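Table S4 entry, Aldehyde dehydrogenase family protein.
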Amino acid sequence: MCPNNATTDDEYDLFIDGETAPAASGERLVVEDSATEEPVATVSAGSDPDIDRAVDAARDAQRDWHETSPVERGRILGRAGERIEANKDALAQLLTRENGKPISQSRTELEVAARYFEYYAGATDKFQGETIPLGAEHVDYTVHEPLGVTGHIVPWNFPTSLFARTVAPALAVGNAAVVKPAEQTPLTAVVLGELLDEAGVPDGAINVVPGDGTTAGAALTEHDDVDGIAFTGSVPTGAEVAATAARQLKPVHIEAGGKNPNVVFPDADLEQALEQTVISIFSRNAGQVCSAGDRLIVHQDIHDEFVDRLVERVRTLTVGPGLDDPDVGALVSETQYKTVKDYIEIGTSEVGEPIVGGVPDDTETGYFVEPTIFDGASNDHRISQEEIFGPVLSVIPFSDEAEAIDIANDTEYGLTAGIFTEDLRRAHRFARDVVAGQVYVNEWFAGGVETPFGGTRQSGFGREKGLEGLEQFAETKNVCVNIGHTQE
């Protein structure tokens, strides 16, 4: 069974040093089901003293964890992945209730979370240094060492897979982790902490402290004994986290969103492009994805046909409570619902009525927004420049390859970009010229746990996933030995 009896408990606590415990303040957060607007549970709301306690526990545990052999660390992380997979169904129920996404997507997200631990379990004894040739009189080599205690600020849109995306490599390298989950979705994070402990991660090497970002999040970022920070979230908060880390000369990597171009050329497989466009912005977490394809840049020669077919396809999508497993679930919170609603109103004033979807009905229960498309948008419009984080698509026509690149790059972000074309040379030119950390060709969200992910510009810096993700949680030490001349 899942720890905390995850589908039925109505009270959750912090997880520190191998034990659940209330917050020092006694305060609690209410976690809401965004489909019903009813409480799911309450969770202890951590603050400065709780972060202190978690960091102290992590500091005490880190050396022993690092000195555990890489092989044994790998076995423990592998068991963690198995524990997540074994509890997938119960965790998926809890994830859907706290986040709103369709239950099938919650199960998939848990499978990805398990895969992160499986992947990095296999990397613990393969994260190798190198020898550097300096001549006969020297032996020079490098060693990867853990940062120490790492802080992980996890967002609400993928609260389990993004927990695993940074915690698994941090633990693999030998760090001890303190996780601050989003206040909207803290429940699954607490359960994941317990599952890792059950799998054999030592007490104190994994700690989960739910709480408000301005209290627990700030305390974690500013803590003198935290040696590195992994942050995923909004641009303003990411900038604050980066500035705080810079003042402390502390390593940090930031993933802060995007406004991603999805470019469709006339020679593309249009059926594939249509299906992938729907996935990119509507049917994956209701568009609440940093790498969503929220700007559809479509060639003028196929614009009318493509948009007509897209509208026809979008009208078949079902919207409803996540536990009913629709195509599109509820947005995560009232705040996010109001943000998306405001942008639909902005789009209506900028472009005119959307060709499908529109301003949601506030009289209905739940934070549901119909998939919405604005056709004939300009790249200068706010709905084309600002991250909406919801199921809202701007359609922008283009005339040739050069214009497509200009439009794609005309944004302050640089996270992902996609192209649909059968011309391999064009695809590679696009990949060369577009400003993005990851480029999708003929498939949106292409890649996987094994492929590095991250952005440029306002999308942040640093890379997660893949073997490169290990480097974010390690320092490189160089050792140079003068072995002298050969003795006669």
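Confidence is low (pLDDT under 50) at residues 4-8.
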